[in-house]
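Retro notes
What went well: the complex prediction finally ran end to end.
Inputs used:
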Amino acid sequence: MAGTQGTTETRGRQERDGDGLVGSNSQLQNIQVLIVDDEKMIQRLVYDVLAQLGFRQITVASSGRQAIHLVATKPFDFVITDWRMQDLDGIDLVEFVRKSPESKCPHVPVILLTGNSEAHYVVRARDAGVNEYIIKPFAAEQLVKRIRAVIEKPRPFVVTKTYRGPDRRHQDLPPPDGKERRKQRHRPEPSES
Amino acid sequence: MADPNETDDVKIFAPDKSLLIKIGVANLDHLLSPQVVASAQSVIEKSADQFLTACLHHLAEIDKLRAALQQAPTDAGKLLSALIQEAFEMKVKAGMGGYDLASALAKSLHLYCEQTGPDRLSPRNFEIIAWHVASVRTALQQRLKGSAGSAGAAILLELGKLQALWKGGTDS
């Protein structure tokens, strides 16, 4: 992965065609992905997994600060970031992306990939405007599931005085039937998303 | 992004479909088929040896930090933070390599050190840290994958007893 730090690397067709799994016309090849992780091994692994899935436009940042520079420079289609980083952590990055006037992509889906597994971390991430949360160690299937969620089921984006990010209400509930809808009509409306 | 649906101080923007439009298909079943996902998983599995090597490095650092902490240094807080970070990284990397037992032990070490704090370190604390280090070393050197059968069960049983002691306040 030499030369990918903060730069976009486009993988050659030969390498992907060689394994016979993804065609050279993969529709994923134009999706701009930003990976942010200061741990080289994980950074490389995520890069290789994404490349194997068919993504080609992958930019890697080795620190939160480098990522801030990148999101202030160009738009991305989605971001995968670690939480714990030396200089500036993943939550600070998400807050910059969502709230800074310098951000080129305030609505970009953000997938947090972290070893922080306790519930209070998940709540903190959600309140910062993270779209999806993956706990390391992870399997490829989990990563794919979260990527598919941000692509196939994009959520409304909510802006309030205290929050900017994806709608935090549960998305996969079946539509209520008539009786349920009548019950809901009598419930107080949420003051915020 | 579509115009927001605005009420009072809340703006709600319609879901952004630009990614789907860019990809040009309504769902990704074909692009991210089970075979493609399996090939991506094999990338992770092929990295097991690299993760093992990295874990052994973290383990050596943890042992050094434990020895330094036992000298009752003035910067115990800094050293313990470094040890906690090493244990956290080891938990992730052992798990990524498929060494679930080592990952569970590293997680236990991480939580134990976080709960203990630098001001209350006693000889018993160091024993418990040393026990974790020795157990992780065994798990990694014997390349015990997954939950590691009866060997893993024996280690986890001992860990459970230790955790019961320190959670009961005897060793914290």
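What we learned: The radius of gyration of chain A is 18 Å.
What to try next: split runs per interface for comparison.
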